[in-house]
Amino acid sequence: MRASKFFMPTLKETPSEAEVPSHIYLLRAGFIRKVASGIYDFLPLGFRVLKKIENIVRKHMDEAGALELLLPILTPAELWKETGRWDVYGKELFRLKDRHDRDFALGPTHEETITDLVRKNIRSYKDLPFNFYQIQTKFRDEARPRYGLIRGREFIMKDAYSFDTSEQMAIKSYELMKETYHRIFKELGLNYLMVEADVGAIGGKFSHEFVVLAANGEAHIVYCENCGYAANVETASYEFELDRLPPEEEKPLEKVYTPNVKSVEEVAKFLGVDIKKVVKTLIYILDDGTAVAVAIRGDREVNETKLLNYFKALDAHLASPQELEELGLVEGFVGPIGLDIPVYVDRSVEDLHNFVVGANEKDYHYINVNIPRDFKPVEFVDFSTARKGDPCPICKSPLEETTGLEVGHIFLLGTKYSQAMRAYFVDKDGKEKPIVMGCYGIGISRLIAASVEQNHDKNGIIWPESIAPFRLHILALNTKDKNIMQTCEKIYEKAKQKGIDVLLDDRDISAGAKFKDADLIGIPYRIVVGKALKEGKIELQRRDGTLKELVDVSLTDNILEKIKG
Ligand SMILES: [Zn+2]
């Protein structure tokens, strides 16, 4: 490709809308353009990267025996209503009506659509198993679209769905996809972690996320360097047994005057006790209006995902001072003793002795509280957010913490969708059984951003070879110099003959501007043809800075062989 005939509108300035490196560089280097909030054009450079990622994903999915198909983007509400997700999905589902006033949704995922296809066409165990996949545009009406391709409202996904006759077989399909995902992310040249994840709105039995490590990531991960355990903090548990205070003799319960002392830090300081011995009691209002109390040790934080999962709620919020007042409670002095609201106790409080709680009375706390003497929890539950330094739940080494971007997510769905939609088959024993499903997503357009988050410097993008828009960038530094242009043309033709994806910068602009653009665009190999040609030399460079040398122009063939790889 000749740059003079190519469309790569680079920008000198950082557009004000862009905050993170991937967004900044993809805009500046002319890979994408914004159309509206969370909606982008892929320009020719961006489209080339997109296609390369798609092809790697497709190759490995095909090798794993998955079958590619294409489902509609526009999906009828009836299907979503069958599984209850018409309501569950809430505002994130893009909804629209046709001319007959019938409801439709733009698909954010396709469990319903594919299950409908399968239930209409599969009768017997002989018809199974299957794994279907598609690479397609998806929609999600994000409350806050941001970071360019990282969180958009329209994006490109690979989604796959497996259908098996038993859970045992479904687990095999799941394991095969897990291996396939490792192959895909390795070939994409990414530094990533596979982590245990929350099943969220999709539902199901268990799931793993593939997270690209990045400073600006939205996923918070804890991991163990010793045994390889890694989990999203939303689901990670930690080994409470190792973090307990030594047992004590129970002392008599006592109510103490604590004027204006509200936060756990203030209480610990005022009473001169370890913060671990101050138990905070948080009142949550669930989406059905029920109030629940959660008691947790002062040094731990409640994880809302664990909370929602435990109460099977879609939404919950901490009671406001006004809501507390309506419940007859005083902000800063809420406690579990004599409370009318059911009290669920985090495992961090299990076996804790002589601790401090609010007395449900302004300016008073109880000290020397003990379970079950002073109050009876409904249950001990793991509500705590895991954090750096917590003991690993597998090997007990201290956990590390990092952030990343989720680029892949796999779920063992079980029979959640097949039962709701009556996707049954007749088994060997003649009995009708629900098909056991799994689903497997990869954020194709998000991967472009994830790769840039991981591969850039202050001058621009540094693409991994496998997904770079071009492999070789030839810079003709002076287009008025016939010798330079003839040499560039020769190298360009030879590179094309060898099947190398090559971009020749033959534009009539300054050498400085060409170098700036080349750094910004980030093509892995570069051949610079300039003044040194008078001495018969051209310069071979790598964008990642690992190579920069003058070589004899007569060695062009050898150089191109090396670049071809
Ligand atoms: Zn471990």
Secondary structure topology:
Layout: H1 21-28, E1 32-36, E2 39-42, H2 44-63, E3 67-68, E4 74-76, H3 77-83, H4 85-88, E5 94-97, E6 103-106, H5 111-121, E7 130-139, E8 154-164, H6 167-187, E9 192-196, E10 206-213, E11 219-223, E12 230-232, E13 254-257, H7 264-271, E14 279-286, E15 291-297, H8 304-311, E16 316-318, H9 321-326, E17 343-346, E18 355-358, E19 364-369, E20 379-381, E21 400-414, H10 416-420, E22 424-426, E23 432-434, E24 436-443, H11 444-454, E25 456-457, E26 460-461, E27 472-476, H12 482-497, E28 502-505, H13 511-521, E29 525-529, E30 537-542, E31 548-552, H14 556-564
Parallel strand pairs: 3-7, 15-17, 17-20, 27-28, 27-29
Antiparallel strand pairs: 1-2, 4-6, 5-6, 7-8, 8-24, 9-10, 10-21, 11-12, 11-21, 13-19, 14-15, 14-16, 18-19, 21-24, 22-23, 25-26, 29-30, 30-31
Helix pairs in contact: 1-11, 2-6, 2-11
Helix content: 25-40%
CATH architecture heading of the largest domain: 2-Layer Sandwich
Q: What fraction of residues sit in β-strands?
A: 25-35%
Instruction: Give a count of the beta strands, DSSP E runs of length 2 or more.
Output: 31
Bound molecules: zinc ion
- Total of helices: 14
Look at the structure and name the CATH superfamily of the largest domain.
Bira Bifunctional Protein, Domain 2
Describe the structure.
The protein has 565 residues and is of the alpha+beta class. It has 3 domains: 11-73 and 110-236 and 401-453, 2-Layer Sandwich (BirA Bifunctional Protein, domain 2), CATH 3.30.930; 241-381, YbaK/aminoacyl-tRNA synthetase-associated domain (YbaK protein, Alpha-Beta Complex), CATH 3.90.960; 470-564, Rossmann fold (3-Layer(aba) Sandwich), CATH 3.40.50.800. It is built from 14 helices and 31 strands. The strands form 8 sheets. Strands 3, 7, 8, 9, 10, 11, 12, 21 and 24 form a 9-stranded mixed sheet that branches. Strands 16-14-15-17-20 form a 5-stranded mixed sheet. Strands 28-27-29-30-31 form a 5-stranded mixed sheet, with helices on both faces. Helix 1 packs across helix 11 (444-454) and helix 2 crosses helix 11. The longest helix has 21 residues, at 167-187. The mean pLDDT is 94. Bound molecules: zinc ion. Zinc ion (ZN) is lined by residues 224, 226-227, 229, 392, 394-395, 397. Zinc ion binds at residues 224, 226-227, 229, 392, 394-395, 397.
